[in-house]
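Worked problem 6 (solution included).
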Amino acid sequence: MSIKLNLGAWSSVFAVPSKVVDEGLKFSDGVKLKVLLYVLRNADRNLTDSDISSATGVNVTDIPEALDYWIQRGILSKTNGEFTPAQQENNDKLTDNSEKELKAETKQSVEGIAKDVGEIKQKFVVTKPQKPDYVFTAQRLAVDKDLKILVGEAQSALGKVLSNSDIATLLMLKDTCGLPLDVILMLIQYCISINKANMRSIENIGIKWADDGVFSVEEADAKIRQANLSSHNYSIVKTAFGLTNPGSPTAKQLECCNRWITEWKFSSEMLREAYERCVDTKGVMRFNYIDGILKRWHNAGVMNLNDLAELDSDKKKKTTTKKRKTSYDIDEIKKIDTLDFIN
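Solution. The predicted structure is:
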């Protein structure tokens, strides 16, 4: 008699440390768990961030932070770029080192982790980080005092009760993007001031700030002042061009406006003149063509309409002189040809 036991899905299993559930689960999210489970399942393989991303759907830029989380929780350890189980490394250290040496090494390791995490936040580059799910957001709100303060301040500023999705956005900006509380509050006030007091705008601008490395009140203040200046300059250009409903400006258009007004100091009448010359020549308004006109004027030292009239007059004189010289040369050639023929 032969017996075969079909274990089904249980025929292939792998170990997960109890510490993951006991200590790491409470403050983890779906992203971190996905990364850890895939790494544990493929412990015998050399995995790259791209491998993990392809298999789990986690953004490549979120993987280092997820791995650092499990290092901090004592599940993994990293030495010379290689990951190992933290418990095994700790056991080796307990055998080979005194308690005093172990404490010193642990302190140094924690400081190194903090430094690595700080570098990751400073180099934050991501198009759309994942927001935490409903359960994780609710759990964090119950224990995270800073998050509670942030939610309360945001509700007061926006004048509404935030949904769980709204709170998840704030949590993402705080934890994943690494924006400090005071910077997030400045971000909310800025969005209110530009009539974009909605969570989608707060999320998009917040991600952009993180991508640009805005992690302090001073950097946020400079960012807001620059944005207000760009908006003001675009408003001047829009009025000078007579644009009524142009829509939101592109980054390139804002760059041109800042250059024309802040850097080159052109007045509205000069902007209008450049606009009209562009339309007369091209039939439509083109920012790059207008930029070329204004650049030539700037290089020629033209700052007002009088300067422009002189420039046009000089250009006309040079053109006329060139034509006369060309005509004279042709007559001379004909005269020479005639003499040659007679001879």
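Discussion: Residues 305-342 form the longest helix (38 residues).
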